[in-house]
């Protein structure tokens, strides 16, 4: 039966905030061996994982397996390496990621209880939301990109902006409204998520953080951000 309240707590696992679904499976994750032609989508939560997964799935299987499109939810086609549960959660700017993650943790009953927005934002800034610091994720892959030619770094903001061209080239199916309606991509079949609290396909916008951050939160966040990001050349757009 559907879960109606948050059942998990975040625990500190080697310095990263996680829930037991991830840590229980840690040996398998650590021992995973990729094949040379595997594609790994490395995202901080809420950066557009589902979107990129669907685009890649359509590029690879869109023409050859029509039944795949109607019968298999996207999180089963492109599984989460770190999770041994069938359902879960590109780089996206910190403020929109924090807002999206907050709404996701409110509606996802296997997330830890998010608390109020102000507490949550502070936890995000402290790197204590699930999967650890956004800052380390985006900067870490940005550094790796300088040495690994196979690493393709994508920005959510660019995808929203160039969406029209990209959508036309692949299919109109990856448009936000289409993915929101599509039962195979909108997570509506997942029992631990309460869409009455917040739908998974929530807004899909750049800049929704402006509807959540107070002026004081924004000033505090920017000051902290500048400090956390002072030694990287990586730049995000928080509006387009
Ligand atoms: P919002 O909560 O801001 O709406 P993830 O898949 O990594 O969990 O990320 C989810 C976020 O990506 C949600 O953001 C969701 O609405 C957005 N998203 C998913 N598909 C999208 C699309 N086709 N276009 C724009 N945003 C999309």
Give a topology summary.
Layout: E1 11-13, E2 16-18, H1 20-23, H2 26-31, H3 49-61, H4 66-71, H5 74-77, H6 94-107, H7 117-125, H8 134-145, H9 156-161, H10 163-170, H11 176-181, H12 215-228
Antiparallel strand pairs: 1-2
Residues 43, 45-51, 89, 96, 100, 103, 160, 174, 176, 179, 201-204, 208 line the site of adenosine-3'-5'-diphosphate.
GO molecular function: sulfotransferase activity
InterPro entries: P-loop_NTPase (IPR027417), Sulfotransferase_dom (IPR000863)
Protein name: Sulfotransferase
Q: How would you describe this protein?
A:
The protein has 240 residues and is mainly alpha-helical. The protein has one domain: P-loop containing nucleotide triphosphate hydrolases (Rossmann fold, 3-Layer(aba) Sandwich), CATH 3.40.50. The chain has twelve helices and two strands; from the N terminus they run ββαααααααααααα. A hairpin with a 2-residue loop joins strand 1 and strand 2. The longest helix is centred in the middle third of the chain and has 14 residues, at 94-107. The model has no long low-confidence stretch (mean pLDDT 90). Bound molecules: adenosine-3'-5'-diphosphate.
